[in-house]
Amino acid sequence: MAKRQLNRRQNWRIEKIQEERAARAAKRESRLLEELEGGDLGGEQPGLVIAHFGVQVEIEDSEGQLYRCHLRANLPTLVTGDRVVWRAGNQGHGVIVAQLPRDTELCRPDSRGQLKPVAANVDQIVIVFAPLPHPHANLIDRYLIAAEHAGIHPLLLLNKADLLDADNAPHVESLLTTYRQLGYPVLEVSAHEGDGMTALQAALDNHVSVFVGQSGVGKSSLVNSLLPGVDIRVGALSELTGKGTHTTTTARLFHFPNGGELIDSPGIREFGLVHVSRDDVEAGFIEFRDLLGHCRFRDCKHDREPGCALLQALEEGRIQPQRMASYRHILASLPEDEY
Ligand SMILES: Nc1nc2c(ncn2[C@@H]2O[C@H](COP(=O)(O)OP(=O)(O)OP(=O)(O)O)[C@@H](O)[C@H]2O)c(=O)[nH]1
Ligand SMILES: [Zn+2]
């Protein structure tokens, strides 16, 4: 009992210290903001959020110059990729005045399980897989559901094509065929050998992309090959402040040399199946699209029901058996209340 009380008191103290720290930071921030607003601010101009650092954001103006910006109190939380209106102050600082509407939002659960946006205006999710580690169709399907849920176009990318051999080729080729038949864009590259990288770059031009996929498929290798000279882990902020003590807490936006952007962070790379419902899962299987709503029973679970449009399509070969199996597997993994 005494021990539990002590723990509670310790927790309370830690929370209090953290609150005080946050309050001091907020006070410091509002003083900085007041100073800036009291000085000479330039006119309103568009900007792009490159990274987010605690209470401040780094933005880029239309000429590619970087500024450290403070946020007016009434603004929502900004994330990398957000388009904003801002005013320049002195010494590379500025004030964000407004957030422009987002086309898309990539969300992830935070440590408390609440969904939080981590990147805005991404329009392409590159789902990376490889002959090694062994690619699971089920995982690819989960990424496709997440992409559909976010309203973002997926691009399927087989990396390490140089590792294709007699053992793994049949499985990989059948995956590629499945997704091509479904109408998804599919590319094959080797980050090591450079094969297919020009086609990949062309697919990334004029898009804001993120790379996702299981550990070891070669995301870092791809990013390093596409963005030579950029150290993804460190980011470029130290050049701006000259201090180099700030690390990116969220994602960072990079420009490809010939156009197009990549938003990257470990958190985004792990982006997978966020909290989705049964309807979301069904919407993520594009071959179900014209069939849903055509079952005899309105609440059909597409399991054994008579007059099920999906089961009939499966029988007639319009739905591939491995996709149906994958759909069932994903449904079974949802929390009870969503099932
Ligand atoms: N043969 C071959 N190996 C590759 C290729 N691309 C990456 N690799 C290797 O695959 C391993 C994993 O690559 P990473 O780039 O670290 O993979 P990642 O997806 O970033 O992994 P995480 O950081 O864990 O998410 C490394 O040993 C790479 O050298 C490729 O095109 N061909
Ligand atoms: Zn049905």
Fold and architecture overview:
There is one protein chain. The chain is α/β, with parallel strands linked by helices. It folds into 3 domains: 2-99, Beta Barrel (OB fold (Dihydrolipoamide Acetyltransferase, E2P)); 105-269, Rossmann fold (3-Layer(aba) Sandwich); 278-338, Orthogonal Bundle (Ribonucleotide Reductase Protein R1, domain 1). Helix content is 34%, strand content 22%. It contains 10 helices and 13 strands. Helix 2 packs across helix 10 (321-332). The longest helix has 37 residues, at 2-38. The chain is globular, with a radius of gyration of 24 Å. The model is unreliable at 234-248 (pLDDT under 50). Residues 295, 300, 302, 305, 308-310 line the site of zinc ion (ZN).
Alpha-carbon distance between the termini? 41 Å
**Low-confidence parts lasting 5 or more residues at pLDDT below 50?**
234-248
Name the CATH architecture of the largest domain: 3-Layer(aba) Sandwich
- What is the succession of H and E elements? HEEEEEEEEHEHEHEHHEEHHHH
Can you tell me the CATH superfamily of the largest domain? P-loop containing nucleotide triphosphate hydrolases
Structural class from helices and strands? Answer: alpha/beta
Binding site for GTP: 159-162, 213-221
Subunit structure: Monomer. Associates with 30S ribosomal subunit, binds 16S rRNA.
EC number: 3.6.1.-
Protein name: Small ribosomal subunit biogenesis GTPase RsgA
